[in-house]
Amino acid sequence: MAIATGETGIHGACAPEFTRVREVFEDNFARGLETGAAFTVFVGDEPVVDLWGGLADHRTASPWKHDTPCLAFSCTKALTAAAALRVAERGGRDLRAPVASWWPKFAAEGKDGVTGEQLMSHQAGLPAFDRRVTVAEAADHAAMAELLAAQAPVWEPGTAHGYHSLTYGWLAGEITRRLDGRTVGRYVADEIAGPLGLDLWVGAPDGVLDRTARLTTGPTNRKPARGNGATAAGTAMPGTASDAARPDGEADGPRARLARDARDPESLFSRAFASPDVAAVPGKYNNRDVLTAGWPAAGVITTAPALAGFYRDLLAGRIVSPATLQDALRPRATGPDRVLHLDSSFGLGFMRPSLTFAVPRAARKGAFGHTGAGGSIGLADTDHDIALAYVMNRTGTELSGGIRAMRLVKAVYDCLR
After folding, report:
1. Considering only Cβ atoms within 10 Å of each terminal Cβ, which end of the chain, N or C, has fewer?
2. How far is CA 245 from CA 78, 219, 344, in A?
């Protein structure tokens, strides 16, 4: 690959045929949309883009380095799903069987028919805790799972789906914890990240936290220069300027309902995202107790090369068999989301193209992956044999994806033509 360093402050390498990707990455910084960020792309096993730049910590002006890890929020769900799929594959477990067959207490409140596949595809009807959960409580994975096992579903499982923003990890994560005996974080370290040499952690040790990028906020969606825009932007947090710029065309459309729910602390949407109560601890998602806890829905700390490498290895059959992956990508839940109101689509843990996982037209058949709140993304494409990841420490208002990531993804596909 050609080295891409210079006055722009962007470092790394980019194959000549992917020069457009480097230009878009640089432009995100030039327009003041980034603090620090990294973007990696593999075609097959070959790295064709590996870029980074900016600041890992705006307070100390510490530069972002090649090995700077960053919290990537719900990108974690793909790792939790992969762990569950691997455990089930190796143990000969059928995820279509009732969860209660291996987690008896889960049968409470009429959930005896809920299957493992429904846990993994946001169909279980448990998108929020019935009570406020503290960050300290959330460190106990078994206790979180037991709280959810005792709850009644808010819809009949299997009849609808809704994004389980944080509860997903303690539901799908029980497949690994109960059938293997290890937490998701321990399993990922032992069976995936360690053997494959991936710098990612679901629950990071202190030594990693010392060099982890510090999250900050700021503008992330200024209009791009002419010719630089992506056709597909991420789903904006309701009530923001980005959201207002995408009218439903009707007063009670899905975006309007989502905006109302975001303002109502008792709505299903607000409860799904507000507990565990990160807002109550100093530093919020920069808090070390949050970052070490290994929340299996939103706790991965990763470099861009590691997250892209995870998807590369998924495609190559190094984590689960190609047949298991192909089956996992078959959409299990598609259409209006009971939490987000917008259309979403899920296989077994992986997002598929939809309004909440927006991808270029060329990616709509083979793309899968997961976004993270604030703008991060991990994506692979079975048709094009590509794997990519974007991580950054300036979190935007996007619930899923974002203009920075989508411009980069679009640039990648433009370079494949």
Report:
1. C
2. 30, 16, 20
